[in-house]
């Protein structure tokens, strides 16, 4: 068993860092078919954990993998990133590691794991085309897609395009009282960062005011979309455990793919948040060839070219929207996550006004 004493952690950090910076990993020039053939010399399995707050978040990836690599069984588990990283660390200290690849929103974990010598260094064929600001230049971790929060979404059955808010200040209009559903900012660091951006512009008066808007606060970023969907379908109780009645507007979700949902980014100079969902393979993997295949495929033209969310590839980011839209620069969320004192400070500001997050994990409601 590994014991996470301060001394041991400090030593592992020093050793990990010293080796991390002398890695000279070449960019892999293999095709996906060649990597697949190599992976088939292993045991035909792969364990991947992915950050998300609803099981449906992983369906498209699992389906695409099974179609492309049918001889390799993908064990793909979706849960909140903050729970995945805890389990990964516990398994490491117990010397019982089973995860081959992690795809997470907790971006601070990857640098720490690199410094501890726990990541497998690999540069897939598309490495040079990944956004360098979101990629570890030694090949320890890389972005697989760009996500964002802060876009307004509404049920067009009840809200016309002309009525929809264009700024976060608009959310304070009395007409929205009892109609907003939003994610607790003290339960999700990405939403916490979004709220920090808003408050830095409008002050804590904005937080105090929205707390008076009878917002339905829920855990998880998928939950607001499902609550609005339940309201549309006249459900008396939503899967979040509360009545969805009247909830027609959110700014912390990507709603289900229904024609009645409309979305719009806040108008400039308003800003919202974006981040690079990041992936890495672990040095402890017993399937390094299969793990490399996964990273190569996840950053390939085949997979990146059909993403409905933002691509991590420069050549596929038509118009350069990752860095030219009015969203906050993607890299700023990575910096925010590295500063855990700052994250904690904001979390307690939200709890002071909104109280602690209530309810079960959203994966209980949306497995």
From TrEMBL:
Record bears the keyword Signal: yes
Signal peptide bounds: 1-20
Keywords recorded for this protein, A-Z: Signal
Gene3D superfamilies tied to this protein: Periplasmic binding protein-like II
Name of this chain's protein: ABC-type Fe3+ transport system
Organism: Botryotinia calthae
């Amino acid at each position: 068993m590994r014991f996470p004493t301060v001394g041991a952690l400090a030593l592992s950090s020093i050793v990990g860092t010293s080796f991390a910076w002398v890695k000279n990993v070449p960019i892999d020039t293999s095709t996906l078919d060649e990597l697949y053939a190599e992976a088939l010399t292993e045991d035909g399995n792969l364990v991947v954990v992915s950050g998300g707050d609803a099981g449906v978040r992983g369906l498209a990836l699992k389906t695409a993998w099974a179609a492309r690599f049918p001889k390799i069984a993908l064990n793909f588990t979706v849960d909140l990133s903050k729970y995945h990283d805890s389990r990964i660390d516990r398994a490491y200290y117990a010397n019982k590691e089973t995860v081959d690849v992690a795809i997470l929103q907790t971006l601070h974990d990857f640098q720490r794991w690199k410094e501890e010598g726990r990541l497998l260094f690999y540069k897939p064929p598309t490495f040079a085309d990944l956004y360098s600001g979101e990629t570890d230049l030694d090949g320890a971790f890389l972005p697989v897609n760009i996500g964002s929060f802060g876009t307004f979404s509404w049920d067009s059955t009840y809200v016309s395009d002309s009525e929809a808010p264009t700024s976060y200040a608009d959310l304070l209009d009395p007409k929205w009282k009892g109609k907003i559903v939003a994610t607790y900012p003290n339960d999700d660091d990405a939403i916490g960062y979004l709220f920090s951006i808003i408050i830095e512009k409008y002050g804590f008066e904005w937080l105090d005011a929205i707390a008076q808007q009878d917002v339905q606060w829920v855990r998880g970023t998928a939950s607001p979309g499902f609550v609005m969907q339940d309201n549309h379908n006249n459900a008396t109780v939503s899967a979040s455990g509360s009545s969805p009645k009247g909830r027609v507007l959110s700014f912390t979700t990507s709603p289900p793919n229904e024609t009645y949902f409309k979305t719009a980014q806040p108008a400039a100079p308003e800003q919202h948040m974006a981040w690079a969902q990041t992936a890495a393979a672990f040095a402890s993997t017993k399937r390094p060839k299969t793990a490399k295949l996964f990273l190569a495929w996840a950053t390939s033209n085949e997979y990146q070219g059909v993403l409905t969310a933002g691509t991590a590839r420069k050549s596929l980011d038509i118009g350069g929207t990752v860095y030219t839209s009015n969203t906050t620069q993607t890299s700023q969320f990575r910096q925010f996550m590295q500063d855990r004192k700052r994250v904690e400070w904001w979390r307690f500001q939200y709890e002071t006004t909104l109280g602690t997050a209530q309810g079960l994990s959203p994966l209980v409601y949306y497995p």
